[in-house]
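Protocol step 4 of 6: structure prediction from sequence.
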Amino acid sequence: MRVSKHLSIQITSPTWLPRFAKFTAFATLILIFAGGMVTSTGSGLAVPDWPNTYGYFMWAFPFSQMVGGIFYEHLHRLVASVVGVMTLILAVWLWQTESRSWLKKLGFSALLAVAAQGLLGGLTVLFLLPTPISMLHAILAQTFFCLTIGIAYFLSRECKGNTVTIKSDKNISLFRWALGVTVLIYIQLILGAWIRHTNSGLAILDFPLSDGRVFPIFNDDMLFSINSQRFSLGLEPVVMPQIAIHFFHRIGALLVTFGITGLLVQTIRYFRNHREIMRVGIGLTVLLILQVILAAFVIWTGKVPLITTFHVWTGALMLGTSLFLTLRCYKLLTLPSMSSVLCFGSEGLKLKKTLLKLTSHVKLTKLNIIGLARQFYLAGFAILGVVFLAVGTHTTFHQNNLNAEQLFHASVIYLPALLVILMIDRTILG
């Protein structure tokens, strides 16, 4: 009886929930690697039924029959089910023990995300790997990973403790750099999903040049040159949209490189004496160098599955590291905003009310943190971007006059719609 009572105290102590949240985030990283191996080895349809595996209940499928592509696909399903159960436990645990209502909702958001992820995985198999669903499956995996990192950080001792904040006139600048890099990496991972699920990974066969040029000319000569090289290597020919998708991914990589370089310069110049910031900034830079090397070897080796999967996995690590740095900046840097509410619960809410009474420039501060626009614009931008990407992808692989007309209308409406959203955000909601 004493032992069980002691064990109960151990499990319900405040230290176990943060540990479990971190473990869930690490398990999600393993899941991303397993999913990457499925795509890299072309095993997405190795198990043609879902949710069963060749008629067996998932956990009853014989291990002796896990051979070839079946091994990668079935292992991915097993890991995904484990992560799903862990997320369910985490969400219930947060609901039972956490005082911050928004964090409870974040836990159930993660649960909904992992459930949707499982459903998308099943639809990917049942509908024979359609590009839009496969892309959403990959993108939601990264989004879910971000949710687990956020939950783990908000439960951490650093976030909940009375950590000494860093005072500098460059705080907002560093926070903007970290947030901007996180957004850039997320967009780059979307482009990465696009390139993988349209078989555009080897649409350009040389690196760092593109068909022998720094700035390629997208014409019939370039297409003929690339397909001639592919023919000599025994590869199927590609079309111009695949080459363009591949090149967009390279441009995105260049933008991410500029962003991380700028972030590192800011960190070294103004925060080199703060190890909490410096270590993460340097770690992100090391991951960037590793990612560029892996990208080169993906091309040079003709997409060896293990190298390609590590390229995907390192991209997820970069996103997680950048998000962690953004959250850490939001907590440790002196930013007169809502960080106290995020980490201190009801006590932080009282502190926020006090700050609202003492300061008259809270709206300006929020504007400086987020940028020229607020949450409404950011949400509108994300939704319009996803819609435009879906229309473009559909037109790429179903080329006809109707789809071309739809893409033209989307391109005409896109910028004016963003302008209208910005005006609403700045005037009516401002």
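Step 5 (inspection) to follow. Residues 1-11, 358-372 have pLDDT under 50 and may be disordered.
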